[in-house]
Every structure is written in C-alpha cells, then in structure tokens.
Amino acid sequence: MKNTLPVLLSIVIVAILGAIIYLITTISRPQVNPSNMPDETTGTIDEQNETSMPVNDTDQPFVYEYEAMLEDVIGRNLTGTAMAGFDGETYQLLAEFDDLPNPEEFGEGFFYEGWVVRAEPFAFISTGEVELDDNLNGVNFYTSSADYTEYGRYVLTIEPNDGDPAPADHVLEADFVLVK
After folding, report:
1. Percent of the chain scoring above 90 in pLDDT
2. 3-class SS letters over 123-168
3. Dihedral through CA 9, CA 14, CA 16, CA 20, nearest 10?
4. Cα angle for residues 72, 75, 79 (degrees, 5° grid)
5. What is the distance between the alpha carbons of residues 156 and 137, in angstroms, rounded to a whole number?
6. Run of H or E residues at 25
7. What are phi and psi of 172, to 5 degrees?
C-alpha cells in the first residue's frame, strides 16, 4: 500500500494539471461559430467573399477611406498595405503584400488568409485566402454588402490546412487610419 500511494498521488496531480491546461487554452482562445453569419459577441467569422477581383459598377474608381501600413510581426522585414472603404452599398478591402515567404516553409498545405478585426465588442471577419503570384507577392481582395469599416485592424495570418476556421499565426498587422 505504501508504494501505491505515491503513484496514485502522481496520477491525480497529472490529471489536475491536464485539466488546468485544457481550461486555460479553451478559455483564452476566441470561440468560433462556423456558420456564415457573424456572431459579433464571440468573435466569429464570416467568409462571404463575394468577389475576388476589384469590380465597380461605375466608371469611377473605388475610394478607400482607410489605410493600414502593415507591420511585420515575425521578424522577416515583410511589408504590405491594406485599404478599406464603404461607398454606401459595398464594403471593399484591398490588401497587397510583397515578397511573402513561401507558405510551404511553414508546413505542407499552409496558406495566407486575411482578417479584419473589431476591438469592441471583439469580433473578426475572414477576408479570404490570399492570392499569390509566382514571385510570392500577394493580394487579398474582399467585398461585402455589409459595412465593416468599424473593423479597425487588418491581420494577415499563415494558416494550416486543418479545417479550423479560427485565425492562426499572425504575419503582418496594423490598425486602419482615416485617409480622407
């Protein structure tokens, strides 16, 4: 009996530590509702990328009201800009990146995805997968009939192809500033 007590105590301690780690990671990660409708209180996503190329029904160029000079957060001297605006009918976002690392450097099947983030109440919207050219320059173009200009931050993430709709590791990010 004396020999089994330390073993049982060790098992109980490991179980308690495992439960604490599970609770910490579950609580600290934003909860994602996989439906297409944003639930703005829990930070869910809306992947309604209606177009992948700039489109305008008039001959006038779209006027972007906000701009973000994206900052590298992985220490690789990456650059990019994001512009967003709402013309009363269409929210439009255009983000461009130069010389991104090959997504395969992060793992097989990885890809870049754009996000707009609102601070209060916290919410985030996927702006879709980034289109890369042969030189690894990227474009993230997104339109919606909803006005997302209150989402004041743009984030570029590197995503594993794991089916998890939540944002993964940040690569570039910045707050939008009014340019009008």
Report:
1. 65
2. EEEEEEECEECCCCCEEEEEEECCCCCCCCEEEEEEECCCCCCCCC
3. 160
4. 30
5. 13
6. helix 4-28
7. -130, 150
Distance between CA atoms of residues 155 and 116, nearest Å: 6
Asked whether the CA dihedral 48, 134, 155, 42 is positive or negative, the reply is: positive
Q: Looking at residue 42, what DSSP letter applies?
A: T
CA distances from 5 to 2, 12, 69 (A): 6, 11, 60
Give the architecture (CATH level 2) of 66-178: Sandwich (2.60)
* 2-6, 35-39, 45-49 — most confident range: 2-6
Give residue limits of the domains in the chain: 1-30, 66-178
- Interval 97-114: pLDDT, tens: 999 999 999 999 999 999
> Would you tell me how many other CB atoms lie within 10 Å of the CB of residue 73?
15
Q: Which pair of tokens denotes residue 22?
A: 């599970």
- Interior/surface letters 40-68, b for 16+ CB within 10 angstroms, e for the rest: beebbbbebbeeeeeeeeeeeeeebebbb
> What pLDDT does 4 receive?
75
